[in-house]
Amino acid sequence: MTDILLINPNTTASITDLVLKTARRFASKGTNLRAVTGAFGPRYIASRVGYAIAGHAAVDALANDRGRKDAVVLACFGDPGLAALQEIAKVPVIGMADASILQACAMGNRFSIVTGGERWKSMLEEFVASHGLSSRLASVRTVAPTGADIARDPKAAMVLLAKGCMACVREDGADVVILGGAGLAGLAAKLKTMVEAPLLDGVACAIFMAEALARQKPVKSAKPPAPVESIGVSPALAKLIG
After folding, report:
1. In this structure, are 135 and 88 located in the same domain?
2. pLDDT tens-digit map of 9-27
3. What is the CATH number of the domain that holds 230?
4. What angle do CA 10, 15, 20 make, to 5 degrees?
5. Do 120 and 89 share a domain, yes or no?
6. pLDDT in tens, 140-163
7. CA 209 to the chain's CA centroid
8. Within a 10 A sphere around the Cβ of 82, how many other Cβ atoms?
9. Residue 78 belongs to what domain range?
10. How far is the C-alpha of 100 from the C-alpha of 97, rounded, in Å?
11. Domain tally for the chain?
12. Are residues 197 and 104 in the same domain?
């Protein structure tokens, strides 16, 4: 049995439910999935300040989780707090965006990302650049509704998302398109017949990578982060970093 914890770093429980439901469709038999929601912060991450707060919420969620886990999936496409989680976790931590862009590069020369919320464009371009993959990025296209809006009414956004994905292929030269965002979880399967290129689901990419790493049972470094005294954080987080 492989146990995977999904952390939704925003505070909308329905998004957590959506991600967990989608993850179960892609998980292998024998994989046990659990999900937790951020205890504080934005309802949905759609700006840099929300992203910063979500990184704290993600680390806090890990610190307060007492369940068994062989891997962790950070269920937000921009991966807020991923490096911090990887520093303190005793098991592999996989980010949706990180897993998606790596798998896209394995499938084609150039990839695009389609997501909801206009502020994500520059944020995701910077994310890809931080991985040294800007030359592989064909484009980032956003639609006007945020991921939260899309999660509430996915049917209303299907035409916009399909147009965005097709523009990535026909106008931007993408070989692979990633449908990014926790609020868009599961929609790639519904859109793939409308897109003339492989369409990747961020949740699926993260689950596949998490399962693969969990089964290898990699041994993390025994060297913990340097302890730091903290004020105002949860007792569990203060203990973890102190």
Report:
1. no
2. 999 999 999 999 999 999 9
3. 3.40.50.12500
4. 115
5. no
6. 999 877 778 888 888 888 889 999
7. 12
8. 21
9. 2-96+206-241
10. 5
11. 2
12. yes
Same domain, 31 and 115: no
**pTM for the structure as a whole:** 0.93
* Distance, CA of 242 to CA of 236 (rounded, Å): 10
Helices 202-216 and 96-107, packing angle to 10 deg? 90
For residue 225, give both structure tokens: 């982060």
Place of tokens 């759609």: 46
Whether residue 133 is found in the same domain as residue 210: no
Same domain, yes or no, for 123 and 220? no
DSSP the chain: -EEEEEEE-SS-HHHHHHHHHHHHHHSPTTEEEEEEE-SSS-SS--SHHHHHHHHHHHHHHHHH--S--SEEEE-STT-TTHHHHHHH-SS-EEEHHHHHHHHHHHH-S-EEEEEESTTHHHHHHHHHHHTT-GGGEEEEEEESS-HHHHHH-HHHHHHHHHHHHHHHHHTT--SEEEE--GGGTTHHHHHGGG-SS-EEEHHHHHHHHHHHHHHH-PPPPS-PPPP---SSS-HHHHHHH-
Q: What torsion do the CA atoms of 120, 122, 128, 130 make, to the nearest 10 degrees?
A: -120
CA atoms within 13 A on the CB side of 86: 13
